[in-house]
TrEMBL record:
EC class (word): transferase
Compositionally biased intervals (Pro residues): 315-324
Residue stretches of biased makeup (Low complexity): 503-516
All residue ranges annotated as the MoaB/Mog domain in the record: 190-405
Keyword Lipid metabolism: no
Annotated source species: Streptomyces demainii
Annotated SMART domains: MoCF_biosynth
Keywords: Magnesium, Metal-binding, Molybdenum, Molybdenum cofactor biosynthesis, Transferase
Family per similarity comment: Belongs to the MoeA family.
Annotated protein name in UniProt: Molybdopterin molybdenumtransferase
Pfam families, A to Z: MoCF_biosynth, MoeA_C, MoeA_N
EC annotation from Swiss-Prot or TrEMBL: 2.10.1.1
Domain of life, per lineage: Bacteria
Cofactor(s) essential for the protein: Mg(2+)
Amino acid sequence: MTEPHHSPTPWPDARAIAARAAVKEAAHTAPVMLPLSEALGQVLAAPLAALTDLPPFDTSAMDGWALSGPGPWRLPTDEEDQGHGILAGHGEAAPLPDGHAVRIATGARVPPGATAVLRSEYGTDAGDGWLHASPAHPVVLGQDIRTRGQECRSGDQLLPAGTLVTPAVLGLAAAAGYDELPTVRRPRVEVLVLGDELLTEGLPYDGRIRDALGPMVGPWLRALGAELSGTRRLADEADAVYAAVAESSADVVVTTGGTAAGPLDHVHPTLRRLGAELLVDGVAVRPGHPMLLARLAPLGLEREGSGPEDAEPGSPEPGGPGPGSPGRGSPAPGSPGRGSPGPRKPEPGNSGPARPESSGNAESPRGAEGRRSPSGPARHLVGLPGNPLAAVSGLLTLAEPLLRTLTGRPAPAPGPAPLAEAVQGHPRDTRLVPVAFRQDMAVPLRFNGPAMLRGIAVADGLAVIPPGGAKRGAEVEVLDLPWSASATGQATDTDPAADRSAGRPAGRPAGGAADRQGGRATGRVTDRRATGRVTGRHATGREDDEDISPQEGPA
């Protein structure tokens, strides 16, 4: 009898579960102090508070003369000549008497008694020892003096925790007195690329194809703030996959391929053998619905709970298919999520019970025979489908929220945009469709099948299309790609009115990938085949009917 299919997790719930999955691990991670020269691209682990007033003393904003009182002003005599006057980097000058003036450079410390600075171009020194201000530029009390603490006072919070360290942040930190910064430790991620059919170089031949995910996934994870410990390519062998996952010291293991239930799909059997806890096992999204997220025991505490000797009846042997095994990608009797025992899985929308804190009597995933506390934080595994765009869907659905928590970055503000064209939806599931921004509209791009990368390569983001589709002009959420300006997680004050006047959706950055393509991507709006019109087969993703069919196979 065919086992009933489990219900996939709704797409919004899957992202929420992924964001919560590593909250405990993130909270227990100690900050890493880095010198300013090494902190670029890191995330602040604590608020940045000023260690000094900025500026630390009253300084001149311009080259000119420091003045005391109303003019005209007496200049120093030959005997009192001060050379170039007061220069930046020198100590406090002598007090300036009332009615006197002295040369001063930009950034120099204003002498006691000075009431204003007169710019060089606004003053006249006739050589008679007196300085006169131009009638067109009368002197105002305090003009061109940067007063102490004008920007901040010592102790003021300058930036919140979670701020991405940019070159400007480094400059501010240096000005505020910092030599090093407390940063969030980058989570270590290892990528395991599964598949006997994959080539690392050359052209496809004899049924073998180039590996597109190995070169793409690692850099994508780096862009999300992770430290990539390596990318390994594994054969479709159960023991090889098990050993690679069990022995990985990474905080997050990312696998590509092997997440379905065929005889050569070894991710689920590996998770069973490790006693992992499935947090997400399939997502109601196209492409990418076979994606998964699991919590692994700390390194060294895994248990082998389902080896060849104790596999459930009907399960494929770790080394390959057993008699009567179904083809790759089809449901296998006894496979996890198909009604048989497997890795623990919480209810959709719930990240499951929290792993207990380390204690002498805490029960670990080993069960009764392994009652000892974990030696470290739990690890996580993100299982991406093997199709390239489906893997991108998994990166944005599960990997991005998980790594956002581990890196301490705040959640990005929702970025809705109106669709330039109608997009056909899946009857039940969310669709993620590559789009490019043109003026204030999101233009759906061609080549959006699960195995295609041509659309995402020129996209600004992925539009979230609800079940049933979306009409032209409908506001939809757009997931930013990690290299887009608005995906940095910075808390910025945007001006919606200014955004609208610039011809882009409120809160969206100017100059996206579509603009940078010089019209190559965005100009497609004039081509019916390229705009995503539902009247064109090549525009809606129907070149791959499994995108929208209720009978869709693994994507």
